[in-house]
Amino acid sequence: MSEERTVRIDKWLWSIRAYKTRSLAADACKGNKITVGGMSVKPSREVKEGDIVTIKKPPVIYTFRVLAPLGSRVCAKDVHLYAENLTPEEELLKLTVKVMPTLARDRGTGRPTKKERREIDSLMDEFFDEDDQ
């Protein structure tokens, strides 16, 4: 009978480069931002092959399947050997940056007047209202 290999969740998250440091991964576990199989976990929770790990990093909720327990950090190009990214496309689209309009003012014109400021605010409100629809 073969023994199933496991590794701590904080160490695995650090190893697959989900977090920059192991302590950040542990803090995420303590803050209920990491779930395994739908249950919040502590940093000491062991993960094994086949576990589904969900990571809440606003604005995106990432989902990974553990392909192999890993105790040491690997280079970014080898992460796919240890974790399968199951994150839905809609979640990844949340990472796209909205381009905010910029208003150019001639050099030396000084600060906007109260009337100009109101006009700028109304333009910005219109821009953000269009994005919500």
In words, what does this structure look like?
The chain is α+β, with helices and mostly antiparallel strands and 133 residues long. Helix content is 30%, strand content 19%. The protein contains four helices and seven strands, in the order βααββββββαα. The chain has helices at 9-15, 22-30, 89-93, 114-132, and strands at residues 7-8, 34-36, 39-40, 46-47, 52-57, 60-66, 83-85. Strands 3-2-5-6-7 form a five-stranded antiparallel β-sheet. It has a two-stranded antiparallel sheet with strand order 1-4. Strand 5 and strand 6 (60-66) form a beta hairpin. It is elongated, with a radius of gyration of 22 Å. 17% of the residues are buried. The mean pLDDT is 88.
